[in-house]
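Researcher: Structure for this, please.
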Amino acid sequence: MIIRSALTALAGLVIGSCLAVFLVFGPAEFGGVKVDPWRTNVHIGSPDAPDIVRSIIARRGLLAMSREETVYFSADTDSDGRTLDETCDYRVVFTAQPDARWWSLTLYAEDDFLPVNGLEAHSVSAQDAGEQQNFAVTVSRQQADGFWVSPENGGAFNLTLRLYNPSESIVADPGVAVLPAVERLTCGGAS
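Model: Predicted structure, token format:
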């Protein structure tokens, strides 16, 4: 009886969490916008956000600013739809810098916090990229030349791309943003 109750509660939590994430980042009728593999929601940072969106934002600890100040994109899969995994190596390929005054790309562990790994390689920003337009960020447990973030101890991690003071066109429609591809290079020693 106790085991059945515990399993029922666990199933409820899993189903509820999946449904909430689906509602926040999924269908357009709830404000979800997808620019493969990146997702956002037009209600993030809005005082008129539906309760479900506000609760997910609070749960994830986003502390969202208004859309005019920051647009948040999140990816938990690569560009082919495979879940991001700390045992894999990736390349985040920028063909242009995001259309914003400033931007940052940050890796978060499965628990939505920075991975605890002692490497302090969690993010890359516009300051790092300077004037470069075409560049890549390597996501790997092994330190890499150039721009690098480490997913070590991140589990099924996610990437968050923040666009600070984005262009008016992105504020009006986040779906027009030119965002980087997320390519899986190798996984567990295989490609």
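Researcher: Any notable elements?
Model: The chain has four helices and ten strands. The radius of gyration is 17 Å.
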